[in-house]
Amino acid sequence: MKQPPITFTKAKGHFLTVTQHRLEVCRNCFRVGLYRQGLVHDLSKYSPAEFLVGARYYTGSESPNNGERRVLGYSSAWLHHKGRNRHHYEYWLDYPAVRGKSPCYVPVKMPGRYVVEMFCDRVAASKTYHGSAYRDSDPISYYRKGQTAAFLHPDTAALLEKLLIMLEEKGEDRTFRYIRRHLHKKPILGGMRPHGRHQTL
Ligand SMILES: [Zn+2]
Fold first, then answer.
1. How far is CA 201 from the centre of its chain?
2. pLDDT tens across 133-177, in order?
3. Ligand 1 center to residue 42 CA distance, Å?
4. Is the pTM higher than 0.70?
5. Taking the alpha carbons of 168, 174, 180, 184 in that order, is the dihedral positive or negative?
6. Could you read off the pLDDT of 98-130 as tens digits, one per residue?
């Protein structure tokens, strides 16, 4: 299959989509006190390796990475993205320390602040997807439908689920306030240590 051309209109559409998403995630991150992460969230989407794929496969109705996958059989933009952005659980898949019978990668426990950034990302993406029909229960429904837990370290899954359920039951303001209050209490969130023993928020 031939690659579609890069056009100015598609480049502009992709730029606006990425920038709009980054702004929404940034707003969420600022609400919980993750200022640096909010500012740099998904910045690699402006790098040539990722941006040019968006400018080529932009449709406005699905991720350009899907279009690239259909043509090439894989998405070079996604491979570039997931290897550089720690809020994606795919970044945290590694070989097990002891290679046993399992030939698979294993999920490493994510530091709490990246779990929170992933939460902020999912809330923003759900709002874009559902528009005015968005409800606080949409992010947990999407998480369950995608069977995401299978790819997460159990502690990472527990923390993300806790936040998503809190969002569904108590709403956005209370959940963001809860995260903000607990985020920098190192023993609670695990702070900077990926393998901290006390991680659940
Ligand atoms: Zn991302």
1. 18
2. 999 999 999 999 998 999 999 999 999 999 999 999 999 999 999
3. 5
4. yes
5. negative
6. 877 666 889 999 999 999 999 999 999 999 989
CA of 133 to the centre of ligand 1 (A): 24
Tally of helices (H runs) and strands (E runs) in the chain: 10, 2
> From ligand 1's centre to the CA of 169, what distance in Å?
26
Residue 33 CA to ligand 1 centre (angstroms):
19
- The per-residue DSSP string of 49-98 comes to HHHHHHHHH--SSS-HHHHHHHHHSS-HHHHHHHTT-TTSGGGGEE--SS
Cα 196 to averaged position of ligand 1 atoms, centre (Å): 24
Structure tokens at 156: 């990472």
What separation in Å is there between the alpha carbon of 123 and the centre of ligand 1?
Answer: 13
